[in-house]
Amino acid sequence: MTRILDAEVAVAAQSEVAEGPVWDTSRGLLWWVDIPVGQVHAIDPDTGARTWFDVGDPVGAVGLTRDGGLVLALVDGFALADHDGQRLTRLPGFIDRTAVRFNDGKPDPWGNFWAGTMAWDETGNPPGSLYRLSPDGTVTELFGDVGLSNGLDWTEDRRLFYYADSNIGRVDLFDTDPDTGTLSGRRPFVTVPEADCVPDGLTLDAEGCLWLAVWESGELRRFTPDGRLDTVVRLPARQVTSAAFGGPDLGTLYITTARQGYTESDRRQQPHAGDIFACTPGVPGRPPYLFGETR
Questions:
Q1: Average model confidence (pLDDT) across the chain
Q2: How far is CA 152 from CA 91, 92, 108, in A?
């Protein structure tokens, strides 16, 4: 039997496209980006204190670094920033920003930062790629022919990598070399039928199960390692984008949403679209990987 959970508004973010949530264990903050607006946000859930900064371009993802800063996937390349965004260093752009932009990304267990691209019109033409930024500034294209690069995460033993391509409606599973992160053995893990919307961001919990945001469904779904759906979190916002565990015990599941392309009528019908929700699923998450730190 599939367990059904509900979530409550945790942050009245009212973002256009809130994405890439990550919990900052050292500061007790939840970070996220508002992609088209080009803003990076943080909030202390205990006090409600909230800060944000503007990067001047659409921003696909934010990750935490070993030295307490941030690593960003901007529209056409990567950047490093202090935690308050006051000193932002852009690395050279390397993709055609008129055709594609960066989307979801996060640090890996080996201290690198992975992020993928997508066509602006979301058609998959031109196709995107998945890239890896190393701490020394080297950028490597891991593979191409991506429709719309989205959620990604690694198992605790560093032997498996989950990756969502929204345009093909699928989360794939790769084998990874635990010492280097080299990918092999790609195969389908979960397919989301086209009529049932598309896979978006994702995260793994401490039990190795995958929590998948399903865009336009109003749901976050949990799959066991054998691909069985066992939990659904229902939200009053259809554009569910991603999720991350946070809180002192990593027991709170924060879920980001969007209101992309919504009319005033749409916003009246879904007043909490673009907010961040939270629930307590009864299983904790894991601390996020950090750029520049090998775990």
A1: 96
A2: 22, 24, 9
